Amino acid sequence: MSKTNVAYSETVWDDSYSGKYPPPQYEQQFELQWKLALEKEEFFQTPGSSTEEKYINDRVFEWTGVHPDGIDHFHDPSMGSRVMDVPVDPALIRGKKCLDLCCGHGRWTRVLQKLGAASVLSTDISQSALKATSRFNSNVRELDIMTLPDHPEMHGQFDFTNFWGVAMCTHDPRLAFENAASTVAPGGSMYLMVYAPDGIHGTRLTGIQRKIFHSLNSVEKRLAFVDKVWAKKWDWRYPLMDNYQNLRFNMSGATEGRGHKIGVLDMLSPAYNWVITLDTVNNWMRKAGFQQVLHLNSKEKTPCAYHVLGTLKC
């Protein structure tokens, strides 16, 4: 097995892989999606990119179960997720020193600000991500999560660290988690989201689509393939059953269930995009010294991701 192709043939992360696989050019693979989101409306107005007030209020509702506008539902369900089964206590954030690691366009930075954080440091390796986030947070910093041990000034400094949707897109998720956990101060908390094995990221079709995407030799061809995946078009390289399912979907005239183009790009573009078991996450938390570990979406029957909140021992 070629190490560079491990993410195509092995999708479930195992900690025995730690230290075995080479890092990709992270700044290149993530810069594209945040540049598109910064420049093109169709990529901005989607989950993961939008920082509009309505969308941020829905994210506050998702985390805490309390909507800033006093309503009991999402403004726009097509842009949202679901309310966590175990809410995030705003007291963990209000008046606290917070860190948004690998912030992307900054939606969670805005959520932390909305929940009353005393300060938020937003870091990312993408210049477009930092440019977008700096529109509402001047405290931004270029940082590669995998080189965080080279920055001792970051260690143990934050009351709340958000590490949402990042670890599984690295060549070594366990190391990425350990680096992120090192930033949390005694008594502080960390929010972690990783893709789960039962979701779309663990399917055979997604693996095939990612392999096709990375075989293409230009941005134009890759974006054209993103359009094709988003439109659920027939492709002879897919399993026949998946093609028939896409055909039935398109014939039904359904308007929901197609997702968003930046979500498709986010699924395809990382050189690694592991799924990670809940047992693995809990083991990470325990070894890192997190005393209280909460599985926030524990009642979700077939989760696409696991949302976990850990609080470090004082």
Separation of the first and last Cα atoms: 44 Å
Shape: globular
Unreliable parts: 1-7
Major sheet: arrangement of strands: 3-2-1-4-5-7-6
Any descriptors?
seven-stranded mixed β-sheet, 7 strands, 36% helix, alpha/beta, globular, 314 residues
Please outline the helices and strands:
Layout: H1 6-9, H2 26-39, H3 41-44, H4 53-64, E1 97-100, H5 107-114, E2 119-124, H6 127-133, E3 140-142, E4 158-164, H7 173-181, E5 184-195, H8 204-215, H9 219-230, H10 240-252, H11 261-268, H12 278-287, E6 290-295, E7 305-312
Parallel strand pairs: 1-2, 1-4, 2-3, 4-5
Antiparallel strand pairs: 5-7, 6-7
What does this structure look like?
Helix 2 crosses helix 6 and helix 8 (204-215) packs antiparallel against helix 9. The protein has helices at residues 6-9, 26-39, 41-44, 53-64, 107-114, 127-133, 173-181, 204-215, 219-230, 240-252, 261-268, 278-287, and strands at 97-100, 119-124, 140-142, 158-164, 184-195, 290-295, 305-312. The chain has 314 residues and is α/β, with parallel strands linked by helices.
Task: Give a summary of the structure in a few sentences.
The protein is of the alpha/beta class and 314 residues long. It has helices spanning 6-9, 26-39, 41-44, 53-64, 107-114, 127-133, 173-181, 204-215, 219-230, 240-252, 261-268, 278-287, and strands at residues 97-100, 119-124, 140-142, 158-164, 184-195, 290-295, 305-312. The protein is globular.
